[in-house]
């Protein structure tokens, strides 16, 4: 489903991301099911300061029916219950989804997101 939603990238292993988020006490993956089949997901985690949302996606044939909104609200509730007071997320450049988030009260933040890969731990 994540592939169909365009959420995967060659440098990320979605299975490893899923397992890591589900294994942690401060992260989770919530799903929406129709007739037992997963048709939507959202990953949420608190980092000790903020809550973050990843992998929000709804199966293309199921979009536009409120599932994405319900998943986002569920993630916010989960994060709030786990101590987060602010929720943040990253939207890839070129993804036209900003309007969806704006409709849920999300605004562009006055900061630049930087990142770097860590080398695997030795031993
Ligand atoms: C973003 C996404 C999860 C929304 O899920 P959804 O189930 O279609 O959303 P909803 O049905 O709850 O839509 C809620 C509102 O957002 C609007 N909306 C949905 N997608 C939108 C978009 N791409 N741009 C602007 N508005 C959008 C809907 O029109 C609806 O507005 P309304 O309440 O005024 O009618 C879904 O489009 C998706 O899976 N996209 C591909 C994956 C992706 O890019 N995820 C975000 C990664 S940061």
From TrEMBL:
Per the UniProt entry, the Enzyme Commission number(s) are: 2.3.1.-
Any one GO MF annotation of this record: acyltransferase activity, transferring groups other than amino-acyl groups
Q: Taxonomically, which superkingdom?
A: Bacteria
Specify the enzyme's EC class, one word: transferase
> Where is the N-acetyltransferase domain positioned along the sequence?
1-123
- Which Pfam families does UniProt cross-reference here? Acetyltransf_1
InterPro entries cross-referenced by the UniProt entry: Acyl_CoA_acyltransferase, Bact_Acetyltransf, GNAT_dom
List the keywords (alphabetical): Acyltransferase, Transferase
Q: Which NCBIfam families match?
A: PRK03624.1
What's the name of the protein?
GNAT family acetyltransferase
**Has keyword Translocase?**
no
């Amino acid at each position: 489903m994540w592939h169909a939603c365009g959420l995967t990238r060659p440098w990320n292993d979605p299975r490893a991301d899923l397992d890591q988020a589900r294994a942690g006490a401060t992260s989770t993956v919530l799903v929406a099911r129709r007739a037992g089949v997963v048709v939507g997901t959202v990953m949420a985690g608190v980092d000790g300061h903020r809550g973050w949302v990843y992998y929000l996606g709804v199966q293309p044939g199921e979009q536009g029916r409120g599932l994405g909104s319900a998943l986002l609200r569920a993630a916010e509730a989960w994060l709030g219950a786990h101590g987060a007071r602010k929720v943040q997320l990253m939207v890839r450049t070129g993804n036209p989804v900003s309007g969806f988030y704006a409709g849920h009260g999300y605004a562009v933040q006055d900061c630049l997101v930087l990142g770097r890969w860590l080398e695997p731990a030795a031993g």
